[in-house]
Specification:
heterodimer; A: 363 residues; alpha/beta; Rossmann fold; five-stranded mixed sheet; 15 strands; 41% helix; B: alpha/beta; seven-stranded mixed sheet; two-stranded antiparallel ribbon; 39% helix; globular
Amino acid sequence: MPKDKPIEGEKRVFMTGNEVVAWAALAADADIMFGYPITPQNEIMHYWTRLAPKFGRDFLQTEDELSAGFTTLGGVLAGRKAFTATAGPGNTLMQEPMSMAEAMRLPMVAIITQRGGPSTGTVIYSQQEVTMTTLGGNGEGMRIVYSTATHQELFDYTIKAFNAAWKYRFPTFVLGDGYQSKMRESLTIYDPAERGIAIVPPEPYFGKPGVPGVDRPPSQLRNTYNMEEELYEVVEHYLEDYAKVAPEVAEYHAHYVDDADLVVVAHGVVARAALMAVKELREDGYKVGYFRPVTLRPLPEKELREVAGRTKKFLVAESANGQLARLLKEGAYGCTTEMLPLFRPGMGITPEEVIAEAKKILG
Amino acid sequence: MSLAQTIELAMPRCWRVDTKPHKFCPGCGHGLVLKALGYAIDELGIQDRAVFGCDIGCSLLSWDFFNLDTIQTHHGRTTPVITGIKRANPKLIGIAYMGDGGGYAIGSQHLVNAAARDEKITVILVNNTQYGMTGGQMAPTTLPGQKTETTPYGRDPEKTGFPFQGPEMVAAISRAGAYVARGTVANFRQLQRFLKRALENQMAGNGFSFVEVISACPTNWRTNAEETWNMIEHVLPQYFKVGEIKVPGAPAAQEGEKKDG
């Protein structure tokens, strides 16, 4: 299989987010994509299907997202870096394979490009897939979810997602949105090796050398247990592992939080509007801070609580009706910080709106 | 003869001895299907390459049945998991094992599309005319008039349709290289041959291969041994025709299958 480097050195480019994801997956040594058409993720497949054969990578268009998810798990079992991409109602279906990935610790990677909901909603944009992506399926949310804000981050975190999945063996998501998917932006794409980023190699679960039962034990994975105690033991063990790696996985950005009377909390593209707003408010003399969880699962809980302990009020800005806010409330449970909403389900949020809301609160 | 030798003769070599006796109910057909499959794997010498996937429902009890790399999947999702494994590593021989509910109801879209795409995998579907694990509800294969927990007065075809013709459907939508057959646990040697041919078809890279197996569920049928045997030997074949339905490059292959089995 030809494994020429898709990117030599580094290159300044001007691309849509979906194109960025395809290049990042190539750079991360992803082997095979399984996908089903849904807007706004389609161009990830379009770029991948054009680029993949040039670098010995594969693609299969499946009959639905259930199949896309389960074939991805099959690819992972065979020891290939497999991934998929979906959105909205497709993400709903994707929760089923994702729960199997959690049950069996399979390093599946999915790129989510959020669109409006509930239901078919819009094909445009939202942040309404936060609850589902962090805690979906029947299970305990043992996943890693990176919420990106820029095209540079889409590139960086798609590479990171493959590494995190194969290192920690929890299903891993890059949570983008339709704006990031369709918008063009400048960024630098690079060969990870040039930046000192080691690519975590995949490892086959099935088909290792030797006859199973003769030369080696068979590799047998199940997700069904007979007794409550059996399942409990497995889940407890996974939860322990998850809690152990959570502090090392969790990421956040914070600015101007030390003396802030009000901290604007946002994730994804809304965090860009929030940061612009906070900078402008600071210039006008308002004591406003900025906090952005990059990982929504696990949440950077320790840092969130520190900020919550120092400030009186949070303004939570999100393109959903409090899906981020619910995660924050759980993470900051017991803190007395007031949590004020700037919720715009399925709508973009501008810096002006954040500024107006902050001024209203601060008087 | 030593005990070990006796066991070896009674069981296919690729079976996991330490998980026997198996977990299926007395009189269940799964043990026979998995025995026929085991002998087919032994004969072909593919224990090092065969990967086994089992569905949810009674088939899940086979998750540790063989000395094969094995994945227990979700209800209906074994076909895509095995498809993904095969696509990612074509050197492996992918076997998807499921019941009639998994293959013909909740996972029917996967069966249809895997067949239509001519996936180089082998799907084995055990047809015992109802949902066994969940306690005997109507399946797509339930016979007209058959009593189940969700058709307590008998299946009414006017309301819920006639028994699903799986191999016939797969034969209709698959390519020339596909192998499609319907075997029965009532004819073990024939079943073993069908399963072997289905695996050979995959190994030769010809195309999709599919074997439905008529099987028994005395627990939910509430039948004694004699009634059970009558069901699989006489009643079910009235609705489900046993034999090879599609064989690559052998147009007359269906001839004589019943007689010489």
